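LOG
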Amino acid sequence: MLLEVDRICKKHGIRYFLDSGTLLGAIRHKGFIPWDDDVDIAMPRQHYESFLRICQDDLDGKYWLQTNETDPHFPFAIARILYNNSQLSVQGKAKHRTGYAMDVFAIDNAADSPLVQSARVFAIKVIQGFCKSRLAVDYGIYHSVWDKIAVLVTSSIGRLFPLGILMRMQHAVATMYESRKTKYKCCLSYRFRELDRKFPSYVFDDAERTEFEGHMLPIPKGWHESLTIMYGDYMVPPPLEERVSPHGYEAMEFLD
């Protein structure tokens, strides 16, 4: 899937970067983190929107582009490239299509004012909470009682809103600074506890290629700053007990 996305992006001049655990794997392991189970990439918003349009026609038929527009039950403000011949064996209450997938995030401008940016992050957290009404929520992943209460309340209220409206609200908040030149970038479609991350804009000014599983793939020029913000001392692996698959893909079925 990653190589197919790389092909499309090279062909159409779309900028993307390895992101999150995939970027960390490229730097620390020259490939996948041994206990990771998916791929994350990120694109500047303009390139992200172009990618979504181009994928409708140019994506290999064994994969499928999943967004809230192609799957109205999909409750996330990201895109996924999903492998068609796969599915989660335990669907839960989710109505959206499941399968083995890679995540595609949009990189947006962050507000220069810390107060305004905090307000945007808060708004996104509320919207994400509303969207959890469409999911089987695992409260065990939240560390504080207040986080659990917030998710319970917002997910209950979220049932009152059509999902399409929530996605449009999220998009409006995420893109409200796209016409401005700002000092920082952010990704307002990250998971709840990662939304506060801000990256200096120069981190994503250009790309360089590095080895990933024997292929040369793009990472941001400011990869060191990015990884430090995300993981701190990123070259030190976590304790053995934390080296576990993060997404529950052990319940994945491949139908080939």
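LOG (cont.) second protein
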Amino acid sequence: MQRLYSVFPNSWPGLGLLILRGAAGFMTLGLLHSFFNLTAATLPVCYALIIGSTILLWVGLGTPVAAIVAAMLQIGTMVLGKEPGMEPAIHAALGVGVALLGPGSWSLDAWLFGRKRII
């Protein structure tokens, strides 16, 4: 899992990543109303993906995977025509950016897989 992240920035860059993860989580949570008119078979799966990726983004666990899932959900709403305009594309770009930057030092990923001190 260590190879999934290059660094865990702290201080101001870590705070910036925390804010980006929070914003990406809120934008993903905003998709709940977009999937309301889907069939009954796919609705629970979409809701589980939305809520799961939102929570994972907020706590910073599995951040790259959760951000890519969030970006794919945003692109799905754009393709299905549930959200017209370029807003889902911008939200998807935010998700891809968070996936590429990593979780930051204020996350569960940093606590679990961060740099270890050998004494």
